[in-house]
Write a structure and sequence with these properties.
3-dehydroquinate synthase, 11 strands, 13 helices, Rossmann fold, binds nicotinamide-adenine-dinucleotide, alpha/beta, Dehydroquinate synthase-like, alpha domain, 7-stranded mixed sheet, two-stranded antiparallel sheet, binds zinc ion, 360 residues, DHQ_synth_fam
Length: 360
């Protein structure tokens, strides 16, 4: 069991990583102050692990009302938010009520947003079931839904009361989703924790899911996310480094209609491009850039996006919502474990870095 703390400005909360059997919810949560419980779960996750979760709650005397929903990006809509509000109302959730969300990033964002807005905000607990959600979306308090065709357009910052991570629940996750989540883990290592990269270089990709190292891998990535969120809760400065590889990655996802690559896969390719850009602009050792590429390949992630048009990508990147008034902000790594943000990157260098990952 590994315990971390997220010290955001608005709230400090615990993150517990380890088997659900050892969670000890009574010791972790202030149950006395908590009213009715409403749990919203991803249907597929519930089928696999719902009984385990109910046992974990049951041993703390908690018996939540349960709603299961299909997952998938289209679920991040207002219609789904209304469905969740109806569920809360039906079970008479009041301001002292507690919402639990059990699923991947889609459910986490959706239900987190419902919790942020229902009665001007009720407490919620994140129980992530994908690797991406465990190391990324469950921590940090960003919640929201898509609006028309704009991703995460409507949302709120609302920090959870606790995040509970049981790595064993990843056993049912499709392998491809697991690998895609690993890209976000690699990202955390790349920007803040070079030892995490070493750990992944030494780990056996075939056995990682079942090995005891997984808990440490998740904890280290989470520690990076927690630290960055603690420094910049509302995304005004340093939190931007969590977008390492994402400007390239988002453009690649978008240019391939969100069909060819999972988000993490596009981020893997994006990080290879970002590392190339770093060798050209902030003196990253080209051998270090190759090392990242080898690590991604080792864990079954793509590092090239052949047959994607460079000019289309260049255009998509200038439209990236993260482009500030001052211009596009690039996250660069002079060395592994150090990230800087720059708006002064020549377009030609961006094009070269991009060309590198478009070659077949
Ligand atoms: N809030 C944030 O800070 C933040 C950060 C990153 C991403 N996100 C959001 O996260 C979303 C993506 O999240 P995701 O990748 O977790 O996708 P997801 O929630 O859609 O889950 C992926 C798939 O895996 C299934 N699944 C989940 N857990 C499973 C398990 N244990 N066993 C079997 N199947 C399981 C789901 O049903 C779904 O089909 C996006 O909407 C993105 O915008 C948010
Ligand atoms: Zn990401």
């Amino acid at each position: 069991m590994i315990d971390l703390e997220v010290k955001a400005k608005s709230r400090t909360y615990p993150v517990r990583i380890g088997s659900w059997r050892d969670w000890d919810l009574r010791g972790l949560l202030d149950l006395e102050s908590m009213g009715a419980w409403a749990l919203v779960a991803d249907k597929r996750v519930w089928e696999h692990w719902g009984q385990d979760l109910l046992s974990a709650f049951g041993s703390a005397g908690i018996d939540p009302a349960v709603l299961t929903l299909e997952a998938g990006e289209p679920m991040k809509s207002h219609d789904s938010v209304f469905q969740v509000y109806d569920f809360f109302l039906q079970h008479r959730l009041k301001r002292d009520g507690v919402v639990v969300v059990f699923g991947g990033g889609v459910l986490g964002d959706l239900v987190g947003f419902a919790a942020a807005t229902y009665q001007r905000g009720v407490r919620y607990i994140q129980i992530p079931s994908t690797l991406l959600a465990m190391v990324d979306s469950a921590v940090g308090g960003k919640t929201g839904v898509n609006y028309r065709n704009h991703k995460n357009m409507i949302g709120a910052f609302h920090q959870p009361d606790a995040v509970l991570v049981a790595p064993e629940w990843l056993l049912s996750l499709p392998q491809r989703e697991f690998r895609a989540g690993l890209a976000e883990v690699v990202k955390c290592g790349a920007i803040r924790d070079p030892q995490l990269l070493t750990l992944l270089e030494e780990a056996d990709p075939q056995r990682l899911l079942r090995s005891t190292v997984l808990e440490e891998v998740i904890a280290r990535a989470l520690a990076v996310k927690a630290a960055v969120v603690g420094e910049d809760e509302t995304d005004m400065g340093v939190r931007h480094i969590l977008n390492y590889g994402h400007t390239f990655g988002h453009a690649i996802e978008s240019a391939t209609s969100f069909e060819r690559f999972l988000h993490g896969e596009a981020v893997a390719i994006g990080m290879v491009a970002a590392a190339q850009l770093s060798t050209r602009t902030v003196g990253m050792d080209p051998e270090a850039a190759k090392r990242l590429e080898a690590l991604l390949v080792r864990h079954g992630l793509p590092v090239r996006a052949p047959h994607v048009d460079a000019e289309n990508l260049m255009e998509l990147m200038t439209m990236d919502k993260k482009a500030s008034a001052k211009g596009q902000r690039w996250v660069l790594t002079p060395e592994w474990g150090k990230a800087t943000v720059s708006t002064q990157v020549p377009t030609e260098e961006v094009r070269r870095a991009l060309t590198y990952v478009l070659e077949s």
